[in-house]
Design goal:
The structure is a single chain. This protein is of the alpha/beta class. The protein has a single domain, classed as Alpha/beta knot, CATH 3.40.1280.10. 25% of the residues lie in helices and 17% in strands. The protein contains three helices and three strands, in the order αββαβα. Strands 2-1-3 form a three-stranded parallel β-sheet, with no helix packed on it.
């Protein structure tokens, strides 16, 4: 409990963070590439909220749209943002062998 308090948080404008940098910017969207079939690289992940998704202001920075595919029998439209973030981070961890 409380491990999130050990994470270094930096507040800045996304434009300032991304401009002039050469790394992929992943965005969790409904019509992106299947994350489990993508070759992921170190980069930045943008997650939107459940109601509105990623804002237009931030959407323009996405170079690699990704999605978590639903089961074929599922009628669910989307996942909770926190749950989607956990799944995405887990796949990055698995592919990049972060430890």
């Amino acid at each position: 409990m409380g491990s999130f308090l050990r994470v270094k948080v930096v507040y800045c404008d996304l434009k300032d963070l991304i401009d002039g940098k050469k790394f992929p910017v992943y965005g969790a969207v409904l019509d992106g590439e299947n994350i489990f079939k993508s070759e992921l690289q170190n980069g930045l992940i943008i997650i939107g909220n459940e109601a509105n998704g990623i804002s237009e202001q931030n959407f323009k920075y996405i170079s690699n749209p990704i999605t978590i595919p639903a089961a074929e029998s599922s009628t669910t439209e989307s996942l909770n943002a926190a749950m989607a973030t956990a799944i995405i981070c887990s796949e990055f961890f698995k592919q990049l062998k972060l430890s």
